[in-house]
Amino acid sequence: MASFEPQDFGLDEPPPRPTTPPVRRGFLLVLLFLCILVSFVYGIPYVADKIGYAWEAGRARAATEALERLDKAGVVHRSSELFRMATAAVAPAVVRVETRRLNAGPVMPQGMPNEGIEGRNLGSGVIIDKDHGFVVTNNHVIKDADEIEVRLSQGTKLAARVVGTDPKTDLAVLQINGTAPVAAKWGDSDKLDIGDWVLAIGSPFALDHTVTAGIVSATQRNDLRINEYESFIQTDAAINPGNSGGPLIDLRGTVIGINTAIYSSNQNMGNEGIGLAIPSSMARRIIDAIIKEGRVVRGYLGVAIEPVSEAAAKTLGLSNTRGALVLDVKGGSPAEQAGLKPGDVIVKLADEEVPDPTVLRNQTANLAVGSKTHLEFLREGKTRTVEVTIAELPSAPVLASFGYRLREVPKGEGPDGAGGLEIDQVVVGSPASRAGLKPGMRIAAVGRTPVRTKAEYDAAVAALNPNQGLPLVIQTPDGQTGPVILGMPPAGKH
Predict the structure, then answer these.
(1) Which among 322, 297, 252 is positioned nearest to 391, based on CA atoms?
(2) Is 7 part of a structural domain of the chain?
(3) What is the pLDDT of residues 328-377, one digit of tens each?
């Protein structure tokens, strides 16, 4: 029989709790650690995901409620109304420009020529004077056209004639045979800044009065070699074939540019978000000159210039590469009379900074012929200032454009005694230099037109569009002849 032994605790006290063996305690700690680890790996991302969704949902609700309040206050409507009103102000003045080039075929039995259409072209334009019916478009839209027809906003078709063109900027002025309903107003492109809203209106792919919106991506784009004189507005507003000549407008409903080109990497020249427009500050002056004078008069310094390279800056002791390095000074030119010499670096003209040669050419072209202005340049590390009298740009300043200069050889001189035109200077790095032209070579023809005098040469060049390249027939000193094309631009127009 078992004996009963009294315990060491009282009757009113609970029995002592049993202690956990060390092995079981370790297992529980490991299990607790694993639970915490699982919670950390799976629980925290789950909670964070839920919080994130809740935050996005709350943000969306807040935005929706804010938009509803703005809509009730009329703010959303007024924002869209800016685009609608700007479009309504200009759209009636936007026209579609269609051109035809006729091809004279074989003579019919009745003795009448059989004229067929050789080619068609489509572009846009904008009416800038309703009383006189003046329409602005691009030169490449109406180039070589035999017939030009303008379609107004309401569908009326009117014949148009060419008032004048300026291939150097790719601008042209037409005059319609009839009454224009409305005219657009010029704006000030100098007030544009990167990020400003702009609208393009035109007839891309024959879709009349198409409106696209975008922002100003850049200003003063002048290194694209599309036009001889360029300072483009770059925009991401969709511009496609058929937009050429149409207006680029701001939200004030004024024309701040003429759409002229697409910068594209594909062969179809479709929109890739880089459209280019001639700024109104340049276009308006050119258009006014064409209408009033029948031609464009540009200022002239008489220097061959190039960018200041790092090597040139180091050699000349310059702290930066800003400015235009003078390579040559034309005899009798304003630059020679002012004392400029090769190696000088022009840094300021008419109190305006000269960052590069293209800007200098644009600045000079805008100056009035006969005006006196200050020109600042660097020579031997020192800044000098002279007064220069601006002359009129000659009709074909080839040295400045393509990098070579001609001299007229009288009859009786030369290997064959026939005279002609001889290249007597080629600027290093110029289009002429890259094409292999050298002093002593002769120019036998411009395109298919034979030339022997400077007057014949100037007339032949004036009949061409330098933007399409300058086709020459060159004769070497040993009598060999061959074709050369100078100045082909890398980017096309539409």
Answers:
(1) 297
(2) no
(3) 888 888 999 999 999 999 999 988 999 988 889 899 998 989 999 999 99
> Of 328, 349, 358, nearest to 228 (Cα)?
358
Q: Are 102 and 116 in contact (CB under 8 A)?
A: yes
With tokens 């102000």, the residue in question is: 89
Q: Which domain holds residue 208?
A: 81-104+115-297
Is residue 197 within 8 Å of residue 191, measured between CB atoms?
no
Looking at the structure, do residues 98 and 85 belong to the same domain, yes or no?
Answer: yes
Residue 493, pLDDT above cutoff 80: no
Q: Classify residue 40 by its DSSP letter.
A: I
Query: How many domains would you assign to the chain?
Result: 3
- Of 358, 392, 426, the residue at which a domain comes to its end is 392
CATH of the domain at 348: 2.30.42.10
In the residue annotation, 144 being an active-site residue is answered as no
* Same domain, residue pair 139 and 259: yes
Task: Compute the Cα dihedral for 405, 408, 413, 418 and give only its sign.
Answer: positive
Give the separation between CA 316 and CA 323, rounded to whole angstroms: 12
- Least Cα distance to 231 among 210, 261, 255 occurs for 261
Q: Whole-angstrom Cα distance, residue 36 to residue 258? A: 68
| pLDDT for 322 | 92
What is the full DSSP assignment across 343-366? T-EEEEETTEE--SHHHHHHHHHH
Choosing from 124, 140, 208, 430, the catalytic residue is 140
Q: Which of 166, 170, 208, 250 is catalytic?
A: 170
DSSP structure string for 233-263? EEE-S---TT-TT-EEE-TTS-EEEEEEEE-
* Percent of residues, the chain, with pLDDT higher than 70: 80
pLDDT-based confidence at residue 440 (cuts at 50, 70, 90): confident
Asked if the structure places residue 48 within a domain, the reply is: no
pLDDT for the residue 268: 55
299 close to 365: Cβ distance less than 8 angstroms? yes
Of 392, 427, 451, which marks where a domain is finished?
392
Q: Catalytic annotation on 140?
A: yes
Cross-strand pairs, 422? 407, 442
From the list 203, 244, 264, 333, the catalytic residue is: 244
CA dist list (Å): 197 to 115, 250, 264, 330, 368: 47, 6, 22, 44, 33
114-128, 280-294, 392-406, 422-436: which is most confident: 280-294
Q: Catalytic annotation on 244?
A: yes
Q: What is the Cα–Cα distance from 246 to 242, expressed in whole angstroms?
A: 9
| CB-based contacts of 276, cutoff 8 Å, min separation 6 | 221, 224, 226, 232, 233, 234, 235, 239, 259, 260, 261, 262, 263
Going by C-alpha positions, the residue among 337, 441, 463 that lies closest to residue 389 is 337
